[in-house]
Design brief:
The protein is an all-alpha fold. The protein is built from 9 helices and no strands. The protein folds into 2 domains: about 60 residues, UraD-like; about 90 residues, Oxo-4-hydroxy-4-carboxy-5-ureidoimidazoline decarboxylase (UraD-like, Orthogonal Bundle). Helix 2 packs across helix 3. The two termini are about 15 Å apart.
Length: about 170
Amino acid sequence: MESKESFVTRFGGVFEHSPWVAERAFDEDSHIALTSDDVHIALVASFRAASHADRRAVLRAHPDLAGKLAIAGGLTKDSRAEQAGAGLDRLSASEHARFSELNTAYTEKFGFPFIIAVKGLTKDDILSAFERRIDNSPEQEFETASAQVEKIALLRLRSMLPGEDNA
Protein backbone atom coordinates (compact mmCIF):
# COMPACT_ATOMS: atom_id res chain seq x y z
CA MET A 1 0.00 0.00 0.00
CA GLU A 2 1.25 3.42 -0.89
CA SER A 3 1.66 6.13 1.73
CA LYS A 4 -0.73 9.05 1.61
CA GLU A 5 2.10 11.29 0.44
CA SER A 6 3.04 9.03 -2.46
CA PHE A 7 -0.64 8.51 -3.39
CA VAL A 8 -1.22 12.27 -3.52
CA THR A 9 2.03 12.83 -5.41
CA ARG A 10 1.06 10.19 -7.95
CA PHE A 11 -2.65 11.05 -8.36
CA GLY A 12 -2.94 14.65 -7.15
CA GLY A 13 -2.93 16.05 -10.68
CA VAL A 14 -5.59 13.74 -12.10
CA PHE A 15 -8.26 16.31 -11.17
CA GLU A 16 -6.75 19.50 -12.66
CA HIS A 17 -4.71 21.47 -10.07
CA SER A 18 -6.76 19.87 -7.27
CA PRO A 19 -4.59 17.54 -5.17
CA TRP A 20 -7.17 17.72 -2.37
CA VAL A 21 -9.30 15.23 -4.32
CA ALA A 22 -6.56 12.59 -3.96
CA GLU A 23 -5.86 13.63 -0.36
CA ARG A 24 -9.48 13.09 0.61
CA ALA A 25 -9.72 9.87 -1.44
CA PHE A 26 -6.83 8.24 0.41
CA ASP A 27 -7.98 6.09 3.28
CA GLU A 28 -5.32 4.31 5.29
CA ASP A 29 -7.82 1.63 6.30
CA SER A 30 -8.80 0.99 2.72
CA HIS A 31 -6.74 -0.99 0.31
CA ILE A 32 -7.45 0.66 -3.02
CA ALA A 33 -6.18 -1.59 -5.76
CA LEU A 34 -3.90 0.45 -7.96
CA THR A 35 -5.92 -0.06 -11.09
CA SER A 36 -7.31 2.82 -13.10
CA ASP A 37 -10.87 1.76 -12.27
CA ASP A 38 -10.39 1.44 -8.51
CA VAL A 39 -8.43 4.67 -8.13
CA HIS A 40 -11.05 6.41 -10.28
CA ILE A 41 -13.86 5.15 -8.03
CA ALA A 42 -12.05 6.51 -4.96
CA LEU A 43 -11.26 9.88 -6.55
CA VAL A 44 -14.78 10.34 -7.91
CA ALA A 45 -16.29 9.50 -4.52
CA SER A 46 -14.06 12.18 -2.96
CA PHE A 47 -15.02 14.71 -5.64
CA ARG A 48 -18.76 14.00 -5.35
CA ALA A 49 -18.66 14.17 -1.55
CA ALA A 50 -17.09 17.63 -1.66
CA SER A 51 -19.03 20.83 -1.20
CA HIS A 52 -20.51 22.59 -4.20
CA ALA A 53 -17.86 25.31 -3.75
CA ASP A 54 -15.01 22.78 -3.77
CA ARG A 55 -16.39 21.06 -6.87
CA ARG A 56 -16.81 24.44 -8.57
CA ALA A 57 -13.15 25.20 -7.73
CA VAL A 58 -12.14 22.03 -9.61
CA LEU A 59 -14.17 23.17 -12.61
CA ARG A 60 -12.56 26.60 -12.44
CA ALA A 61 -9.09 25.02 -12.34
CA HIS A 62 -9.54 23.74 -15.89
CA PRO A 63 -8.16 25.84 -18.74
CA ASP A 64 -10.21 27.28 -21.56
CA LEU A 65 -10.09 25.14 -24.67
CA ALA A 66 -7.69 26.73 -27.15
CA GLY A 67 -7.48 29.70 -24.78
CA LYS A 68 -4.81 32.10 -23.57
CA LEU A 69 -2.97 29.49 -21.49
CA ALA A 70 -2.65 27.24 -24.52
CA ILE A 71 -1.28 30.07 -26.62
CA ALA A 72 1.17 31.09 -23.89
CA GLY A 73 2.28 27.50 -23.29
CA GLY A 74 0.88 27.50 -19.76
CA LEU A 75 -1.19 24.31 -19.86
CA THR A 76 -0.36 21.27 -17.77
CA LYS A 77 1.33 18.46 -19.70
CA ASP A 78 -1.92 16.45 -19.68
CA SER A 79 -4.08 19.36 -20.87
CA ARG A 80 -1.59 20.27 -23.60
CA ALA A 81 -1.53 16.69 -24.93
CA GLU A 82 -5.33 16.36 -24.72
CA GLN A 83 -5.98 19.60 -26.58
CA ALA A 84 -3.32 18.85 -29.21
CA GLY A 85 -4.82 15.40 -29.76
CA ALA A 86 -8.10 17.06 -30.73
CA GLY A 87 -6.37 19.51 -33.07
CA LEU A 88 -7.00 22.52 -30.86
CA ASP A 89 -3.38 23.59 -31.29
CA ARG A 90 -3.89 23.92 -35.05
CA LEU A 91 -6.96 26.16 -35.33
CA SER A 92 -7.37 28.68 -38.13
CA ALA A 93 -7.74 32.32 -37.13
CA SER A 94 -11.52 32.16 -37.61
CA GLU A 95 -11.81 28.91 -35.61
CA HIS A 96 -9.73 30.41 -32.81
CA ALA A 97 -11.95 33.49 -32.81
CA ARG A 98 -15.06 31.28 -32.51
CA PHE A 99 -13.54 29.32 -29.59
CA SER A 100 -12.59 32.59 -27.88
CA GLU A 101 -16.10 33.98 -28.35
CA LEU A 102 -17.69 30.80 -26.97
CA ASN A 103 -15.19 30.59 -24.09
CA THR A 104 -16.06 34.13 -23.02
CA ALA A 105 -19.84 33.66 -23.29
CA TYR A 106 -19.73 30.29 -21.54
CA THR A 107 -17.55 31.48 -18.64
CA GLU A 108 -19.72 34.59 -18.17
CA LYS A 109 -22.85 32.42 -18.03
CA PHE A 110 -21.60 29.55 -15.86
CA GLY A 111 -18.62 30.92 -13.91
CA PHE A 112 -16.20 28.21 -15.07
CA PRO A 113 -14.66 27.23 -18.41
CA PHE A 114 -16.21 24.82 -20.88
CA ILE A 115 -14.98 21.32 -20.02
CA ILE A 116 -15.15 18.31 -22.28
CA ALA A 117 -13.09 15.13 -22.47
CA VAL A 118 -11.55 15.79 -25.87
CA LYS A 119 -9.96 12.39 -26.46
CA GLY A 120 -11.36 10.92 -29.67
CA LEU A 121 -13.13 14.16 -30.61
CA THR A 122 -12.40 16.54 -33.44
CA LYS A 123 -12.46 20.32 -33.19
CA ASP A 124 -15.82 20.22 -35.00
CA ASP A 125 -17.22 17.74 -32.42
CA ILE A 126 -16.04 20.03 -29.64
CA LEU A 127 -17.51 23.17 -31.25
CA SER A 128 -20.82 21.39 -31.74
CA ALA A 129 -20.93 20.34 -28.06
CA PHE A 130 -19.91 23.85 -27.02
CA GLU A 131 -22.74 25.42 -29.02
CA ARG A 132 -25.27 22.90 -27.70
CA ARG A 133 -24.24 23.05 -24.04
CA ILE A 134 -24.14 26.84 -23.78
CA ASP A 135 -27.96 26.70 -23.76
CA ASN A 136 -28.03 24.45 -20.66
CA SER A 137 -29.25 25.74 -17.32
CA PRO A 138 -26.53 26.46 -14.73
CA GLU A 139 -27.54 23.32 -12.79
CA GLN A 140 -27.47 21.11 -15.90
CA GLU A 141 -24.11 22.46 -16.95
CA PHE A 142 -22.56 22.09 -13.49
CA GLU A 143 -23.51 18.40 -13.57
CA THR A 144 -22.41 17.96 -17.19
CA ALA A 145 -19.06 19.65 -16.56
CA SER A 146 -18.56 17.57 -13.40
CA ALA A 147 -19.22 14.37 -15.36
CA GLN A 148 -16.71 15.50 -17.99
CA VAL A 149 -14.09 16.16 -15.28
CA GLU A 150 -14.66 12.61 -14.01
CA LYS A 151 -14.28 11.24 -17.54
CA ILE A 152 -11.04 13.20 -18.05
CA ALA A 153 -9.77 11.77 -14.76
CA LEU A 154 -10.50 8.22 -15.90
CA LEU A 155 -8.72 8.77 -19.20
CA ARG A 156 -5.70 10.17 -17.37
CA LEU A 157 -5.68 7.26 -14.94
CA ARG A 158 -5.90 4.75 -17.78
CA SER A 159 -2.74 6.24 -19.26
CA MET A 160 -1.01 5.85 -15.86
CA LEU A 161 -2.30 2.51 -14.58
CA PRO A 162 -3.61 -0.81 -15.78
CA GLY A 163 -7.36 -1.37 -15.80
CA GLU A 164 -9.20 -4.20 -14.08
CA ASP A 165 -8.44 -6.60 -16.92
CA ASN A 166 -4.72 -5.76 -16.94
CA ALA A 167 -4.01 -5.69 -13.21
